[in-house]
Design brief:
The complex is a heterotetramer of chains A (about 650), B (about 110), C (about 525) and D (about 475). With about 650 residues, chain A is mainly α. Chain A has helices at about 5-25, 30-55, 90-110, 120-135, 140-160, 165-195, 200-210, 220-235, 245, 255-260, 265-275, 275-280, 285-305, 310-330, 335-360, 380-395, 400-415, 420-445, 460-475, 485, 495-500, 510-515, 520-550, 555-560, 560-570, 575-625, 630-649, and strands at about 65-75, 80-85. Chain A has a two-stranded antiparallel sheet. With about 525 residues, chain C is mainly alpha-helical. Helices cover about 75% and strands about 5% of the residues of chain C. Chain C has helices at about 1-20, 25-45, 75-100, 105-125, 130-135, 140-150, 155-180, 185, 195-200, 215-230, 235-245, 245-270, 275-280, 280-300, 305-325, 330-360, 370-375, 375-390, 395-410, 415-420, 420-440, 445-450, 460-480, 485-500; strands at about 55-65, 70-75, 505-510. Classes of the chains: A mainly alpha (about 650), B mainly alpha (about 110), C mainly alpha (about 525), D mainly alpha (about 475). At the A-C interface, strand 1, helix 5, helix 6 and helix 26 of A face helix 14, helix 16, helix 18, helix 19 and helix 20 of C.
Chain lengths: ~650, ~110, ~525, ~475
């Protein structure tokens, strides 16, 4: 089929779904709404698959489908088309978005069936898919930005879906505004690039990107990429703009799975991978990205240790995993980052949906302290969650293992990497293993701590089927990119992933190290891998010991770390800090600004002017005494003054 | 010895000074006196001072026009006096009062 | 004749309305008239040649020959869209006033039509005095609209509005007179008030010295327009006027009247005083930036919805000023586009606020809450307009803001870096307001309405939908296909930027229907 | 010297003769009928016919640049136009007098007699080229006015106003005359045409002449109420019956300025920088004092009185311009044009005010306008037009008046005076808007007096229509003025 039509269907099918559901948003017919929405996304998925197959059939060096629908903005030398590109990177993204999206839509039918706003919900979800597709397919930064803001908008709407609750509405607002801070930087980044290269088309930008390294911190490319990265920290919840993501869990759980785990939050990583030639040219930016990524990975994982809300744990886990991805792209392992993006989409969507299934089965209970032993009530959910758990902690041969290992190896060995990055990555992995095991233990295993009134039940098939599919993907998804060191022992599986992405990833200029001397360092790679896997296993077992074998241990440990625990439990008081240091002062000073500038200065000036005039009037009036002799006196004085002036001067 | 020639040679200046003095006196009358009738008399005084200067100029410039003007001025003065007195009478009839300090209702 | 028709047709309408005996059909009649007027403007647009940079449909008759003042009107790419905006908003305002204006209906519509005529005249006049006449003429009907049909402090607000604006424009009058006196240099002896002759003047400019002709004239003009825009710190009349004005008044004020100020910067200030505007651009850009941030910050703490939107206008108009004074095609195109956007989105916001005010008679944010449950369609419309106002892509607001920021970045990166904060702050105050009003648990008003059947909150009526739909359609249309609108002005803007130093405009008389 | 009086002289002064004769008709009728007041309507019609005939004759015979009585009276464009404006104002005043509560009644015939004689004085004033003749015209006008004011049905403040006006007016006349005597003494002539030849040099060389000219200027400043010689204006305007106030504010001001213009045309200002400076300052002070004091007023009539002072300030700007201008017809025409616009709009405003006075003791404050628009939409609209025109808002006539006046000033480089002028226009908006606010934006039941007032209504409407549309055709009118003054 014609690519243009195919992409049009891909994009517009969710719009049609959105409109169909949107105009009848009051309806509570969840079957109809769900079928329309799921169908719409599924159509997109079919299109994505077709496009992907087309792409595969093309020669490797020309794998690029670009279409233009119309000219969007054309002013001076700025020409932005409504143009879309399917290439190696975006094809994977659209597959993830529509594929995982379809599953999550399907799941939502079961999850949301009792909600009155179900039609509206599906409309938003479709709108999100549309914007996300724009984001990944857009051929220029500005088109990408359309989707970039669009998904932010949908996220705002979906987080605040149950808007009657003030806190939830506030969470949506927080997400949007925090994202906007990043977006502002993103806009500046675009400006710098446009002024430097004269285009915003990403293909052209990549081609124009300097092949030499820009050493200065103030170079155009460095600044631009830094600004874009700040945009990414907003969208992808990295330090310092990560604060919105945990709050975003206020939305329905499938939303968290789709937007805040699988797709939207990875937009920042995607953007960096898409513009990798630019970022490669700016090692300083890469260093910042890697550092922020590593720091986020560790910091969020630490918070994850202390959370009791099942979704919050997963949320911090997401932040932490996103940190991993940024660590990967920061050290130049774009392929690994992309792969982790995909595997994470599988297993984190799985876990979120799983948690949704749990919450659904527990009648909206989210506190894991009130769960336990759910294994026997929800076997399917438990089993699929187990797969997700194994994947995320990086159990060998599960999908997360491959991607995480690739990242860690690159963090160590890449010319842009270093031992410290590797250590941070390993610490993150250890912590992840601990809190994920803790989550499993408290939720599914051990003794039941259920409220007597709660009768958990396994979810319906419509919810479990997506879980199962995602579980399968979580298990096998990693085999698309088996590292060479392992692949050679598994019947020489080639690393499809690297081959696929190779044409669009520019090599780091001094990257001969890995490529040519890989064999020499095979031992090193094995030993690093072994170390990390061993540490992760020990950590998981420790958690198992803490929460299953000796359930009281965690309490003791918590007591030892008293204040530190408190500090971590409150997310380092970052929210409080932002409020005290930024938001409240701004609001307060605005009040003062209005009061002193508008009311007390500008208006007062106006009144003063009026008062001066009126004062003059009062003086003039006071001269008008009614006494005619006084009037004659004015005439006399006038004569004297005039004459003295006229004659004497 | 005291210079007294200015007393013997009466020139234009003398008339003008006289006129000015009279005019000033008239002005002072207008400015200071309270009685309406006196006020009108002061104005007459001013007009007469003007007449003096007209005549003086006429004499010293050898231009008879000035003396004609005096007649005009006198006529006007008479008319003015008539109107003024009429006003004064009507007011006195109404208010029994010719002190101008009484008329200070209009002000501000 | 099409431009004269546009200008004077509303006056004719006003006269017919004055004589119209039936009270009950005045509204329908006025609506019909305004639609007719819109149709005429569409006819004009149909024949408008967007490939021509100069003035089209030019009409010129000598008016006051002694002073070279003529009735001289013409339209070019800079004014065409603003004219369309004016005629477009008119039926919407009349329809919106259906409920809110319930006394002196006749007078209200007469004032609206006179106002429309004056505004169109200001956009179309090419003669300085003619322009000034229309410019000042627009004050009076607005003064009555706010003063007669306004809120509690209407008199304070309307007098403040009148005096502020008038204070600015008299200096402009003086400047116009002064420039007329200079024209014999270029016309060969005849005094002239034609803008085209003004363009030819080479007014001496000395950088850094304030008391030189061009600088003084520049400031006389710029001050008049700055008050109208309004530029910080001359903005304080605006919140008062907006708060007290009836809904259609707020719409026309925000939608068109503020644009008169910014439009005149493009039509008058930049081409007439190229050196001075380049030399003092920093001042206006600085004030624009301050306006953006200040307006946003102050909007954030307003307890009254209308006041909040009014301050948001200050913020948005700051962008437009920046776009104009950076003097590159991004900035100017963006500014021109933003003028339309602001007219649509802020106009729509005022319409929406008016609709809720009709129901509840309150604009206090703290009294609302949970409105989304009670009035879902209304909420949808409001959120869409909010998105336009905070410049979310795919709505019109984004195009303008992006281009302006890009233009300002080109001029000086720091301006863009500072003013981009308005993007964040704008989202903050608008969403904060949306949250307080629509989301959360039912507030005082909503819970009261739920019990009290008489004051029940009905969702949008058919009439209100008819008012809003064109606005919403335009929001997306302009956001998705900006070229449909920008193409009209492209040539003129390029011409302005390329020839600012020696600005002149070609003239083209009216093209007969059909033969282009 | 040829002292013969010919037909041409008679023809030239025929408007004056007609005025005098017509002034006698109602009075004679009254005297012949046992001193019983005749039908006021017919008296009014007679008077109006008289004014019309005089106006017609002025149009026919005036403006020919001929002099009558050996160059004593000059009938040029200025005479013609100022005379016509004054006649117009007188007609308006008479119509108001006919229906106003404080002037209608048993003394209407006398009032007509006095009015027409004062207009006769005005015509002498504007046509005089001899300072003494000018003075006679001035006195004839003023003496009639003193009596007209005192003849009000209202018994208290109108008498006070008359006395104040009389004393101060006579005082100022004396000052004027004193100046004339010095001019006579130094220049040996009091004929303005003769003075024109050498005034500029005389001013420079002869202190006595300068002294005299200063006194004359001050005398005029009193008449046209230039600060600080303006103090009588608010009191007299307020105290006088409204129709007569209107008459004073329009006709008297017009002719005084016209005569002032004649004196200024002697190019005195070109000779004396000091006098020029002083006059500029006086203009600024006058505008400002008038406007700021008007802001503080509550009585509407008094507000208009102060507004009249400020307009004198604007006019003085034009006068100064005409005084220093080489091509004075332009500036003079702008002054004349402004006088016309000012007269029409002020007359209109006073006419509405006159209609609203329910009895002779009724003084309107601003609050008394509340709700006027509801009861009298047409009159309220007309008053709005007058006030906005006074404030100088386009496209009303007042704007064009200001435009021409200030462009003349700018043309002569008097930028700063124009600047003050426009700043003052902004201040003036403050108080002009106040009645409009009251009429349209406040609730109340203001209404006109109940007795029939059709004539005044017609006057108001005609004036309003004139102001509304004449602005659009002001160009030809101005050109006409300029040509006839050239």
């Amino acid at each position: 089929m014609n690519h243009q039509i195919l992409i049009a269907i891909l994009l517009l099918s969710p719009v049609v779904g959105f409109l169909l559901n949107g105009v009848r948003f009051k309806s509570a017919n969840y079957v109809l709404a769900g079928s329309i929405a799921t169908g719409a996304v599924f159509v997109s998925f079919i299109c994505s698959v077709l496009l992907f197959l087309d792409l595969v059939s093309m020669p490797a060096e020309n794998r690029r489908i670009a279409v233009e629908f119309f000219t969007w903005i054309a002013v001076d030398n700025l020409k932005i088309n409504a143009g879309f590109v399917v290439d190696q990177i975006s094809s994977i993204m659209i597959l993830i978005i529509t594929g995982v999206g379809t599953l999550i839509h399907l799941f939502s039918i079961g999850y949301m069936h009792h909600d009155k706003g179900v039609t509206k919900y599906f409309a938003y979800l479709n709108l999100f898919i549309f914007n996300m597709l724009i984001l990944v397919l857009g051929d220029s930064l500005l088109t990408m930005f359309v989707g970039w803001e669009g998904v932010g908008l949908c996220s705002y709407l979906l987080i605040g879906f149950w808007f009657s609750d003030s806190a939830k509405a506030a969470a949506g607002m927080k997400a949007f505004i925090t994202n906007r801070i990043g977006d502002a930087a993103f806009i500046i980044g675009m400006f710098i690039l446009f002024m430097t290269f004269g285009t915003l088309n990403m293909h052209e930008l990549n081609a124009l990107a300097p092949t030499t390294i820009e050493a200065s911190w103030l170079g155009a490319v460095t600044l631009a990429t830094l600004m874009l990265f700040i945009g990414a920290t907003g969208k992808s919840a990295q330090i310092p703009l990560y604060v919105w993501l945990p709050d975003a869990m206020a939305g329905p759980t499938p939303v968290s799975a789709l937007i805040h785990a699988a797709t939207m939050v990875t937009a920042g990583v995607y953007m960096i991978i898409r513009l990798n030639p630019l970022f490669i040219a700016a090692p300083n930016t890469m260093f910042v990205i890697a550092t922020i990524g590593a720091a986020t990975a560790v910091m969020a994982a630490i918070i994850g240790l202390t959370q009791y809300d099942i979704k919050k744990v997963l949320a911090y886990s997401t932040v932490s995993q996103l940190g991993y991805m940024f660590l990967a792209v920061g050290v130049g392992a774009f392929g690994a980052g992309m792969m982790h993006l995909m595997t994470h989409a599988f297993f984190k969507a799985l876990m979120f949906l799983g948690s949704g299934s749990v919450i659904h089965g527990m009648h909206e209970e989210q506190d894991i302290r009130k769960m336990g032993g759910l294994k026997k009530y929800m076997p399917i959910t438990h089993f699929t969650f187990l797969m997700g758990w194994l994947a995320i902690i990086g159990f060998p041969l599960f999908s997360g293992f491959f991607s995480k290992d690739e990242i860690l190896w690159n963090a160590f060995s890449s010319p842009r990497g270093g031992e410290l990055f590797w250590i941070a990555g390993v610490i993150g992995a250890i912590l992840t293993a601990f809190y994920m095991t803790r989550l499993m233990a408290l939720t599914f295993w051990g003794k039941s701590r259920l409220d007597s009134k709660v009768h958990p039940h396994e979810s319906s098939l419509i919810m479990t089927i997506p879980l199962m599919i995602l579980a399968i993907l979580s298990v096998v998804g990693g085999f698309v990119g088996v590292p060479h060191v392992i692949g050679q022992y598994l019947g020489h599986i080639p690393n499809f992933w690297e081959q696929w992405l190779e044409p669009v990833i520019r090599a780091i200029p001094a990257n001969e190290f890995v490529a040519t001397h890989a064999a020499d360092h095979e031992g090193l790679e094995w030993s690093l891998m072994g170390t990390s896997v061993a540490l992760v296993m020990i950590s998981a077992l420790t958690a198992f010991y803490f929460y299953i074998i000796k359930p009281g241990t965690s309490e003791k440990v918590r007591k030892i770390f008293g204040p530190v625990y408190n500090f971590v439990n409150h997310k380092y008081f970052v929210d409080e800090f932002y409020f005290a240091a930024v938001i409240n002062p701004i609001v307060k000073q605005s009040q003062n600004l209005w009061f002193y500038v508008d009311v007390h200065f500008i208006d007062k000036m106006t009144y003063w002017t009026a008062d001066i005039v009126k004062g003059g009037g009062r003086v003039a009036k006071s001269f008008q005494t009614g006494n005619m002799q006084q009037y004659a006196m004015y005439i006399g004085v006038g004569i004297v003054v005039v004459l003295s002036f006229v004659l004497m001067r | 010895m005291l210079e007294t020639s200015f007393l013997n040679n009466i020139g234009l200046e003398h008339y003008l000074v006289l006129s000015a003095v009279l005019f000033s006196l008239g002005m002072a009358g207008v400015l200071l006196r309270r009685n309406l009738i006196v006020l009108m008399m002061s104005i007459e005084l001013m007009l007469n001072a003007i007449n003096i200067s007209f005549v003086a100029f006429s004499k010293f410039n050898n231009n008879p026009e000035g003396q004609v003007m005096v007649f005009f001025v006198m006529t006007i003065a008479a008319a003015e006096a008539a109107v003024g007195l009429a006003l004064a009478v009507s007011i006195f009839k109404r208010f029994k009062e010719v002190n101008i300090r009484f008329f200070e209702h209009l002000k501000g | 004749m099409i431009l004269s028709t546009l200008i004077f047709l509303p006056i004719v309408f006003a006269l017919i309305l004055t004589a119209w005996p039936q009270k009950s059909t005045i509204r329908q009649l006025a609506l019909g008239f305004s639609l007719l007027q819109f149709a005429v403007s569409i006819l004009m647009l149909k024949d408008f040649d967007s490939g021509f940079a100069g003035l089209q449909f030019v009409e010129k008759f000598s008016w006051i020959e002694r002073f070279g003042i003529s009735y001289f009107v013409g339209i070019d790419g800079i004014s065409v869209m603003l004219v369309m905006l004016t005629t477009f908003l008119m039926p919407i305002m009349i329809l919106a006033s259906w409920k809110s204006i319930d006394e002196k209906i006749k007078g209200f519509h007469i004032a609206l039509f006179v106002l429309q005529s004056a505004m169109l005249g200001s956009f179309l006049a090419v003669d300085a005095i003619l322009f000034y006449v229309f410019w000042e003429m627009s004050l009076v009907p607005m003064y009555f609209i706010v003063g007669v049909w306004g809120g509690a402090r209407k008199i304070y607000a309307t007098v403040k509005f009148f005096i502020y604006t008038m204070a600015g424009s008299v200096l402009m009058l003086l400047a116009i007179i002064f420039m007329m006196r200079l024209t014999p240099e270029v016309t060969g002896g005849n005094i002239s008030a034609s803008l085209l002759d003004f363009y030819k003047l080479k007014i001496p400019f000395v950088a850094g010295e304030f008391f030189t002709a061009q600088t003084l004239l520049f400031f006389a003009f710029a001050l008049a327009f700055a008050i109208k825009v309004p530029l910080f710190p001359l903005h304080t009349w605006l919140p008062d006027a907006h708060v007290e004005a009836p809904t259609p008044g707020s719409v026309v004020l925000a939608g068109v009247m503020l644009k008169m100020g910014t439009y005149c910067y493009l039509r008058w200030v930049l081409p007439l005083f190229p050196e001075a505007s380049a030399h003092y651009a920093w001042l206006f850009i600085a004030l624009g930036v301050i306006g953006i941030i200040y307006g946003a910050l102050v909007a954030m703490i307003q307890p009254d919805v209308k006041k909040l939107v009014a301050y948001s206008s200050v913020s948005h108009m700051g962008y437009i000023i920046i776009g104009i004074f950076v003097m590159n095609s991004f900035g100017v195109s963006g500014a021109l586009y933003q003028m339309l956007n602001h007219g649509i989105s802020t106009g729509a916001l005022f319409l929406l606020i008016g609709m809720i005010y009709e129901r509840t008679h309150s604009r206090e944010i703290s009294k609302y809450g949970g409105l989304a449950k009670a009035m879902p369609w209304y909420t949808i419309a409001f959120v869409i307009v909010t998105m336009s106002s905070i410049a979310v892509p795919m709505t019109n607001g984004f195009i303008g803001e992006f281009l302006i920021l890009l233009g300002s970045y080109k001029y000086n990166p720091w301006i863009a870096c500072v003013s981009v904060s308005g993007v964040v702050l704008g989202a903050a105050y608008m969403l904060w307001m949306v949250k307080k009003v629509f989301f959360g648990p039912a507030g005082e008003i909503v819970s009261h309405a739920a019990v009290d059947k008489e004051h029940a909150l009905h969702d949008l009526s058919a009439r209100e939908i008819a008012v809003l739909v064109p606005m919403l359609v335009l929001i997306f249309w302009m956001g998705l296909f900006p070229n449909h609108f920008m193409d009209y002005s492209k040539k003129s803007i390029d011409h302005l930027i390329a020839n600012q130093q020696n600005y002149s405009l070609e003239l083209r008389a009216e093209v007969k229907m059909g033969d282009k | 010297m040829n002292n013969s009086i010919g037909l041409s002289d008679i023809l030239l002064i025929s408007p004056l003769i007609v005025l005098f004769l017509f002034s006698l008709i109602p009075l004679t009728g009254k005297v012949l009928n046992n001193n019983k007041e005749q039908n006021p309507a017919s008296s009014l019609i007679v008077a109006l016919i008289g004014l019309c005939v005089a106006g017609g004759l002025l149009v026919v015979f005036g403006g020919s640049d001929q002099t009558a009585f050996n160059g004593q009276l000059l009938f040029d464009g200025l005479t013609q136009w100022a005379g016509l404006i004054a006649l117009l104002a007188a007609a308006g005043g008479l119509i108001m007098m006919y229906e106003n509560t404080s002037t209608q009644g048993k003394q209407f015939s006398e009032l007509i007699f006095l009015t027409m004689n004062s207009i006769l004085g005005m015509l002498i004033l504007v046509s005089a080229v001899n300072l003494i003749t000018l003075f006679i015209g001035l006195e004839l006008m003023s003496l009639s006015l003193y009596l007209m004011i005192a003849m009000s049905n209202e018994q208290k403040i109108s008498k006070e106003a008359a006395i104040k006006y009389f004393v101060l007016g006579s005082f100022a006349s004396a000052i004027f005359l004193y100046g004339v005597s010095f001019v006579f003494g130094s220049a040996n002539t009091v004929n303005i045409v003769d003075l024109m030849a050498n005034a500029a040099t005389l001013v420079k060389t002869n202190k006595i002449f300068l002294f005299g000219m200063s006194f004359i200027t001050i005398g005029f400043c009193f008449k046209v109420s230039i600060a600080p010689f303006h103090a009588w204006t608010p009191d007299v305007y307020q105290g006088a019956p409204t129709p007569i106030t209107s008459y004073m504010a329009t006709a008297v001001k017009t002719v005084s300025f016209a005569a002032f213009l004649r004196v200024m045309a002697t190019q005195t200002l070109n000779g004396s920088q000091n006098l020029f400076d002083v006059l500029q300052w006086l203009a600024v002070i006058t505008m400002t004092v008038g406007n700021v004091a008007a802001i503080m007023q509550t009585n509407f009539k008094r507000t208009l009185a102060y507004s009249s002072i400020s307009h004198s300030g604007y006019l003085l700007v034009g006068l100064i311009t005409a005084g220093i201008s080489q091509n004075s017809s332009y500036s003079a025409a702008s002054v004349l044009f402004y006088l016309l616009t000012y007269s029409v709009m002020t007359m209109g405003a006073f006419a509405v005010l006159s209609m609203m006075e329910k009895s002779e003791n009724h003084f309107l404050t601003n609050e008394d306008f509340s709700g006027f628009a509801k009861n009298q939409p047409l009159l309220a609209f007309c008053l709005t037009v007058f006030l906005l025109s006074l404030a100088g808002l386009p496209p009303l006539l007042g704007f064009f008046g200001k435009l021409y006046l200030f462009s003349a000033a700018v043309n002569e480089g008097l930028m700063w005076l124009a600047l003050w002028g426009v700043i003052n226009s902004v201040i003036s908006v403050f108080y002009y808007l106040r009645p409009i606010v009251m009429m349209y934006m406040k609730d109340g039941n203001a209404d006109i007096a109940e007795h029939p007032q059709q004539a005044t209504t017609v006057l108001v409407v005609v004036a309003a229509i004139f102001i509304l549309i004449a602005g659009l055709f002001s160009g030809p009118l101005f050109t006409l003025f300029e040509k006839s003054l050239g």
